[in-house]
Amino acid sequence: MLKKKKSQEILEIVEAKQNETAIADVNVVSIKLVIFTLQNGYYAFGRESIKEILPTGKINAVPGVPDYILGVINVRGDIESVIDINGFLGLPEQGAGSSKNIIIAEGAGVRSGVLVNTVEDVMDFPEDSIQPPLTSLNDKIKQFVIGETEYKGKSVTVLNAKEIFKNISTN
Amino acid sequence: MKIGRAPSKVMHTSETIKTKDIEVLTFRINQSRFGVDLDEIHELIELDQAKQRECKTTRFEDEFRLGGLKIDYISPKVLLPKGLVASGILVDQVQEICHVSIDSIKPLPDLLKLFCQTRIWGTTLIDQQIVFLIDLQ
């Protein structure tokens, strides 16, 4: 019998590990979250709400719009709005200088960029790892929160992009 | 200064859209760049000319209801819209007339459509800069 090539053995080991993971995954419903930071806190949107992640570029102010609409950016020839959601979460407004990323998100029929400090990760979380929001959370903010989970020992607030955009578009 | 071309015949909508370019006069207000279709402009005049003609002049931020925005005009001029030559709009830092392809014009992003009662109807890119297109009337 011919001896297996080393590469073949390695691939078999890798495939076996993937199959173990796959079997485990069938039994666990997971949600993919995009984790980002605002004012040193960790937050997340569901992956299904996210269209693109961009580095912060020049934001062109639009006169006569609410303060949380920071302006518009040029994304490969298309024009996208950029908003600051800190106010919706009870956080101080953030300056564009401290922000490194813009997340293009969509919800409630509205699409816009959201200015964040950094995008940390995109990963799967078991659905049951997302706990309901704290009861002590302000009602005004709670409407935008799906729940809480943990990432690298830090608490992550999972946000509802659809509710945030719905609130903006109806107020 | 009279802007642009000899008076043209009234064009039906389908004929207007067939032209691939519009000519846009651009100007800057604070850090934002704006553009107006030349077809909407009767004339661009100096502030003192407007005063001599007793032309009613409205500041840009008042005309477009920019809620509390304070504009420190650097080099103001008065735009006289077609059909309203006795009243003009004060604009700042008039720059150039550009040919803008209709294909390059984008509608406002969703969120801005909700708030822009200010007659900003679209955007285009000129020299890689975003220019907001406005209706004068």
Strand count, sense and barrel status of the largest sheet of chain B are: 6 strands, mixed
Taken from the alpha-carbon principal axes, the silhouette of chain B is: globular
Structural class of chain A: alpha+beta
Report the total helices of chain B. Answer: 4
CATH superfamily of chain A: CheA-289, Domain 4
Number of discrete helical segments of chain A: 3
The spatial strand order of the largest sheet of chain B comes to 7-1-2-10-9-8
What is the ordering of alpha helices and beta strands of chain A? HEEEEEEEEHEEH
Q: Look at the helices and sheets of chain B and give the structural class.
A: alpha+beta
Topology order of chain B in helix (H) and strand (E) letters: HEEEHEHEEEEHEE
What does this structure look like?
The complex is a heterodimer of chains A (171) and B (137). Chain A has 171 residues and is α+β, with helices and mostly antiparallel strands. Helix content of chain A is 21%, strand content 41%. Chain A has helices spanning 6-27, 139-142, 161-170, and strands spanning 30-38, 41-46, 50-55, 69-75, 78-83, 101-107, 110-116, 118-126, 145-151, 154-159. Chain A has a five-stranded mixed beta sheet with strand order 8-1-2-10-9, with no helix packed on it. In chain A, strands 3-6-7-5-4 form a five-stranded mixed beta sheet. Chain B has one domain (21-134): Roll (SH3 type barrels), CATH 2.30.30.40. Chain B is 16% helix and 42% strand. The interface between A and B is medium-sized, with 22 and 30 residues.
Descriptive key words:
heterodimer, A: 171 residues, alpha+beta, OB fold (Dihydrolipoamide Acetyltransferase, E2P), 5-stranded mixed β-sheet, 3 helices, globular, B: 137 residues, SH3 type barrels, 6-stranded mixed β-sheet, 4-stranded mixed β-sheet, 42% strand
Compact description:
Chain A is of the alpha+beta class and 171 residues long. Helix content of chain A is 21%, strand content 41%.
